[in-house]
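Sequence only, no structure available. Ideas?
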Amino acid sequence: MSNPKQQIFLCAINNILSGTCKEDCKFCTQSVRYHADIERYSYKDIGQIVSEAKAAKANGALGYCLVTAGKGLDDKKVDFVARAAQAVKAEVKDLNLIACNGTASKEQLHYLKQHGIDSYNHNLETSERYYAEICTTHAWSERYETCENVKSVGLALCSGGIFGMGETKEDRDALLNAIASLSPESTPLNFYHPNPALPIKTRNIELDEAVAIIKKARALLGEEKLLMVAGGRELLFNGKENLMFESGANAMVIGNYLTTKGIEANSDKEMLNRLGYKVATSCDTH
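Reply:
I predicted one. Tokens follow.
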């Protein structure tokens, strides 16, 4: 096996239905409860989704995630994601299509798989104990069950969480252990990005703690898996991105996030080149 740290896997995300969620997750600007200053829209044009997928592929992305706001899937949303997936697959080759649409049943997930979705992303977000502190409208157990459903229908599971939302070190360890118990193919590690509209006002994580989390995640998940540094990396690793990869990360999100600006893809590619890493050209980690 080649050393996975020599090549970095790039993933892009597309917010295809934005800012319409009725849940009360205290970390999320997409909740209508907090009136965050974000762009809100319903059902992005599928032609636009395809053209944005082409741009992501041209920037080196191997993974492309179709994200919808809201607690979970319903018939209308399943149909829309399936049609978007088919359209992207018809025009963009060799792109791992990921759906991120909240809680989902086996039947819904099977339908998405039949229509071109390769992976499903559903993050556990934080420990089971702490989850009730940051969300009261649904239970952590629903999140875990959706992840189990993903695996049961044969989709690749992508599951991670957010660090720095006021949780303890014990919560962080419990979250990583819970993620590892699901054995996901890919794990995004996000670092809380405060927004003035949100109830969680500050981020309680520093660079050394973030490095320790990446190292622990890599040890728990094994060398073969994708370990992705995602939202908030710009705040913690700015100019010290080498620490992400030296600690065990082998993937990252390029471009913008759901409601916050990311770094320009060219800047990220220049950073990787400067640090001596290649951009992966195949999804195979072996």
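The two ends are 6 Å apart (CA to CA).
Hope that gets you unstuck.
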